[in-house]
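Reopening this one. Same input as before:
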Amino acid sequence: MATVYFSLSAKLIGGKKQVMVRFGGTGFNQRAKSGLYVNPTYWDDLTQGVTIPKPRLLTDELIATIKELREVDAKIRELRLFIEDEYIKDTSAPANNANWLKEVVYVAINGEEEVKDVDFWGAWELFISTKIVSSQRRKLYTTVRNILQRFERVKQRKTKGFALDLHTFPPILLSEFERYLYEEDKYAEKYPDIFKDVRLCEGRGGVKRGANTVSGRLDIFRTFYKWAVEKDLTTHDPFLKFHIKAPVYGTPIYITKEERDALLNHPMSTQSLTQVRDIFVFHCCIGCRAGDLLKFTRDNVIDGAIEYIAGKTADDRPLTVRVPLNSIASAIIEKYKDDKRRALLPFVSHQKYNDYIKKCFKEAGITRMVTVIDTKTGRNKQVRICDYVTTHMARKTFIGNLYSQVQDPNLIGALSGHREGSKAFARYRNIDEDLKRKTVELLE
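Same output, byte for byte:
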């Protein structure tokens, strides 16, 4: 039996909270934003609906509030019936389409015609709100949408009345947008009023982007147009004859097992650095993404292994990852065991994690020079590994050191949370000199 459930979001906007919808049944459990907002004072969790006040004395303000509440309450009731009716039409749809509830809710609130006839920005709002992706990926979608808004505003300074059109975006304009991505920092200086709205900015203003970042932003824009065509919002795709340069990645940089052990055994100058050092070494033994690591609790330890759903796949074909704990990882968990703390380890913020691990490397004397690609210029440069290290190096260390011992990408991918055949996996491993030598020796 399927059930529709309404609740309020945690975020308060202008004194109101958005009504959230959950629809669950056998084989599915989906959530969606309704686009309806209610003052939490007038919300009843028990009835999952609006409570209409019955004051003895009516004022103009109260009359307006009651009218608004009745309208929202009616829409919630209609939404419930609409969802149930759509489900009855095809009871297998939610289980086969992870996007089903969001699409149904959008049609219920906005009407079918509006779904089929949205403008450029309306399509982007629908894309961001309904596309099933991780929260981090959704942030990137929003970032690209914001860049396009700035691009349109800059173009309007040169051409009055200019507007981006979903159905006529010409390929030549894509080339202009690509150039804009490289040069947006210059426009930030030329038109500071456009960039004063922090919401429309990456960071705190115009930024200088490298080739890989530009390719990534264009790739997201292409994903948007593919989605729009699939949803019959348009038949136009400006990317059909537009080439996006493939990202260029250097040799993965990671520490050896010997360096990892040296880091673990070196006494740090402060307790904070000691904790971050231990977390990093644990990270090297688990190989998960940093976002997943920071969410681990004691419940993730199951029968001598860390078990979790990879965050990057959580919203789309969830991938359960199970990594057996080696003696080093087990010792670190035992060292920080605290029944009063739900988190598995005494985590710091992601930013502090990045900052502190650099200090840990320096104190441990892990300062060898490495060659990396400058993301801005695309050229090679030499830096100290202690200045280059980030939390992500722990993941590279896990994958790189394992691959030098076991050349089975599917096995290692199952431990790192990569899907079988993942193109991204190749970026993490380095075919080291010993492996090359052993391969060549096969010819003798």
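So the earlier flakiness isn't reproducible anymore. For the record, Residues 257-441 form a domain with the hpI Integrase; Chain A fold (CATH 1.10.443.10).
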